[in-house]
Design brief:
Elements (H helix, E strand, L loop, with lengths): L1 E2 L3 H14 L7 H15 L1 H4 L2 H28 L14 E2 L6 E5 L9 H5 L4 E4 L4 E4 L1 E2 L4 H10 L5 E5 L3 H8 L2 E2 L2 E2 L2 E2 L2 E2 L4 H66 L6
Parallel strand pairs: 2-6
Antiparallel strand pairs: 1-2, 3-7, 4-5, 8-11, 9-10
Helix pairs in contact: 1-4, 2-4, 2-8, 7-8
């Protein structure tokens, strides 16, 4: 079985650490410094075309590792709605990850156990919360799963994109409320988990863009610097070509003078 958004990507994340030459214990600052150093060395304007694919890998590795670091810091702080999100889902996968996944809106589930009755390898009951959830994606035959979905009396079982699953499963569970002084705190669930997931995803994207903005400016500066080096190389070659042309003109002139009748 493959743990959603975690074990399936474990090997990939190991490759990202290797690409940047950092470890799982590296700080965000160390990741940033390693990224900048490698970007400057392998920029296509310096390393040529072969550096193009490698710089794309560096960009992706930096984006993923910095995002993981941000989520880990948020999880450590443990404050506010959605602060514990790590990017990992709760359900596991029976077989390869597919484009669609099953999601139970636990806030609307009435605990009837119909889904568990028809597909017990896929669905499970949380006796503490009194609601069902997906334990294993596609743990049963698809026919059994569809019967389980159709048997839900409140239509709280949904087919969703697998890329949406981690956020939805996270927000479907009770979230810690942000406290203000001695007031507030406690736990809550969003009334509309799909709307909450859209807002939460947009917030993550904004945070990601803000973190990537300084690196984009740095890449632009590095590109300008690389272009200056390229321009200097172009001027050097142009100068050499001009000197060779002048030398050839002189040689051709000498040859013309040596031809019979050239002085007449």
């Amino acid at each position: 079985m493959i743990r959603c958004c975690s074990t399936a990507r474990g090997k990939v994340r190991e490759d990202y650490y290797q690409a940047l030459g950092v470890t799982v214990n590296s700080t965000p600052q160390e990741i940033k410094e390693a990224y900048r150093k490698l970007q400057k060395q392998h920029h296509p304007d310096i390393a040529g075309y072969k550096g193009h694919d490698y710089t794309l890998l560096l960009n992706e590795a930096y984006k993923v590792l910095m995002s993981s670091s941000r989520n880990a810091n948020a999880n450590a702080s443990g404050r506010g709605f959605g602060s514990g999100f790590t990017g990992n889902g709760y359900s596991s996968w029976n077989g390869p990850v597919r484009s669609q996944a099953l999601f139970v809106d636990e806030n609307k589930c009435i605990g009837c156990r119909e889904c568990v009755h028809h597909a017990r390898e896929t669905f499970a009951m949380d006796d503490v919360l009194g609601s069902a959830h997906v334990e294993v994606q596609f743990g049963d035959l698809e026919q059994q799963i569809q019967v389980a979905v159709d048997s839900c009396p409140v239509n709280c079982i949904h087919w969703v994109g697998s890329q949406e699953l981690a956020v939805l499963e996270f927000l479907a569970r009770p979230q810690q409320k942000e406290a203000h002084g001695v007031f507030g705190g406690g736990w809550e669930r969003p009334r509309d988990v799909f709307a909450a997931a859209r807002n939460f995803t947009r917030r993550l994207e904004r945070q990601e863009q803000q973190e990537m903005a300084p690196e984009q400016r740095y890449n632009d500066d590095a590109r300008e610097e690389a272009e200056t080096v390229a321009q200097a190389e172009g001027r050097r070659r142009a100068g050499q070509e001009l000197r060779w042309r002048r030398l050839l003109d002189v040689l051709n002139g000498l040859r013309d003078r040596r031809k019979p009748g050239a002085d007449r």
